[in-house]
Amino acid sequence: MRMASPIVQYIVLRKDLAETLKWPTGALIAQACHACTAVIHQFREEPTTQQYLADVDRMHKVVLEAKDEESLVSLAEKLKSENVDHKLWMEQPENIPTCIATRPYQKDLIQIHFKKFKLMK
Q1: Could you tell me which of 113, 119, 14 has the C-alpha nearest to residue 71?
Q2: What are the C-alpha distances in Å from 46 to residues 4, 10, 85?
């Protein structure tokens, strides 16, 4: 019998915010936190989200980097076209896209969308 794929949440942050625009590390972490909180709240009724939250000590997140705004927005458009629930976090009041977080999914259902992104360093 095949074991169920683990439930994971994917987070993709713009690498250029730190490298080119010189955002501090704390500001980047805040962007990821905003996106994660928003998408968990938005999709709190989804069974997979409830299952993910039922064992908070064993949550799995995969944090990846997008090279720039264009690659992040392009990913958001692809996720939308593939009906992958996610939140594109827009930093206000500047309206800058900074991060994407998916709602929790079984890893084998969505990992294909993130193959071209590297782990955040």
Answers
A1: 14
A2: 17, 16, 10
pTM score > 0.90 for this model? yes
Q: Structure tokens of 50?
A: 């409830």
CATH code of 46's domain: 3.40.1490.10
Express each pLDDT in 67-92 by its tens digit. Answer: 999 999 999 999 999 999 999 999 99
Cα 97 to Cα 27, 59, 60, 121: the distances in Å are: 13, 25, 24, 19
Extended strands (E) in the chain = 7-14, 61-66, 86-91, 96-102, 105-106, 118-119
Question: At residue 53, what is the residue type?
Answer: L
Task: Quote the number of domains for the chain.
Answer: 1
